[in-house]
Amino acid sequence: MRVWRLWTPRLAHQETEGNPVANQIITACDIPNAPSGQELGIAKDTVAMVSCPLTLFGFDKDLLLPKGPVCTNLGLKPGQRLTVKGKISPSAKSFVFNLGKDASSIGLHFNPRFDAHGDVNTIVCNSKKVEEWGAEHRETVFPFQKGGTAEITFNVNQNDLTVHIPGHQFTFPNRLGLSVFDYFDTQGDFTVQSISWE
């Protein structure tokens, strides 16, 4: 049975400090046998966790890293896709979506930069294998606006990933040769409102 639960950031923070809070968990919603392809809405200032087979959790940006939801056990294979919807901070410098096997094996590091690391209005993509980064790839089409909303879709193909951004799409090679993408995380100046996969 798949059960989705929401926790408050305060309780999640206590858990990470070693304080047991199992009897204090606030269950905002339980969805038994939730099918894949169903959209998961992320409420503001909450931490979400989804148990078997998908795990989703995240931490409040003022408490711990990563700053947004983290999904594991996604099981995305060629022919499937992941869509993220959310709001960009009015003072955004950059945000990051990582998609891969786990936190140390990232098949796609998607990093729109408004003004960060020497880049202005540029999307930087990369891959990471066992903590070693590959060569950066830059996209100059930049449809994102500070304070605006965005929807980004990642299609998993056999040899690459197709990234759909507003008004544009591009591909990034599957450098790690991953047959399954199990991991997704978000960081930076982007508030996730929903994640869906199918």
UniProtKB/TrEMBL annotation:
<keyword id="KW-0430">Lectin</keyword>
<feature type="domain" description="Galectin">
    <location>
        <begin position="68"/>
        <end position="198"/>
    </location>
</feature>
<dbReference type="InterPro" id="IPR044156">
    <property type="entry name" value="Galectin-like"/>
</dbReference>
<dbReference type="InterPro" id="IPR013320">
    <property type="entry name" value="ConA-like_dom_sf"/>
</dbReference>
<dbReference type="GO" id="GO:0043236">
    <property type="term" value="F:laminin binding"/>
</dbReference>
<dbReference type="GO" id="GO:0030395">
    <property type="term" value="F:lactose binding"/>
</dbReference>
<protein>
    <recommendedName>
        <fullName>Galectin</fullName>
    </recommendedName>
</protein>
<dbReference type="InterPro" id="IPR001079">
    <property type="entry name" value="Galectin_CRD"/>
</dbReference>
<dbReference type="Pfam" id="PF00337">
    <property type="entry name" value="Gal-bind_lectin"/>
</dbReference>
<dbReference type="GO" id="GO:0005615">
    <property type="term" value="C:extracellular space"/>
</dbReference>
